[in-house]
Design goal:
The chain is an alpha/beta fold and 276 residues long. It has one domain: Metal-dependent hydrolases (TIM Barrel, Alpha-Beta Barrel). The protein contains 10 helices and 8 strands. The protein has an 8-stranded parallel β-sheet with strand order 1-2-3-4-5-6-7-8, with helices on both faces. Helix 3 packs parallel to helix 4.
Length: 276
Amino acid sequence: MLIDTHCHLDASEFDHDRGAVVRQAEQAGVRILVVPAVEAGNFGAVRMLAREHAGCVYALGIHPLFVERASDLDLVTLRSALREHRDDPALVAVGEIGLDHFVSGLDRDRQSHFFTEQLKLAREFDLPVILHVRHAQDQVLKHLRQCGVRSGIAHAFNGSIQQADAFIHQGFALGFGGAMTFERALRIRRLARELPDEALVLETDSPDISPAWLHPVRNQPRELPQIAQTLAVLRHRSPADVAQMTASNACRVLPRLAPCAAAFAGESAMHPGRTT
């Protein structure tokens, strides 16, 4: 079984064929899709996807690129949504949250404020976090330590080996996806080769970060098996080993995934001819 730990299935790029995208992912063996929100306005959309599609789960949060148009009232909305749906097994994390120091002109103090407040909510509701960490690895780590959040995924990780070790020590797995498939992505590929097994999870970030064979066409979850194949080659492992390893890691850092994964595993055992 493969788990896509980061997929924006609610994005407008999927409006014309969203159901087909989910079916194609399932046929490819991608049985669970984690769909993180990016702002208060799409909390309902990601939650609805989890109701409509058995393999979809969701996270609620405010993305650092969206805090410019957010207000503290959106943090109140987030807290209310987390409280209202705290018993929903499809709610697996607070996310996508974090810091983006790559895009110029953004208010870093405002990003830090929203990030800190959302980390506090994750701690209050005992949920892991899905992190956006772009050119801000050390700053994100500082916030995690200060707020005492010790589980989740650093999405699309592209830091140093030392920074990767720090995230792992903090209890996080690191997301690898389409960027890893480009031969020129030397640092990402080195990380993919050298990090310990327990550090790695797979993602597509669909519709973004298309893999080398698809770029610049829209990315989608059905590409995950070939992305996993790239990781398998880099680590000299079988694709089946990589699928099992990354799915286990995803369930460890996002514990609410485990029952869903177990259900699909049991279904596959009952139907051994089905792709997993």
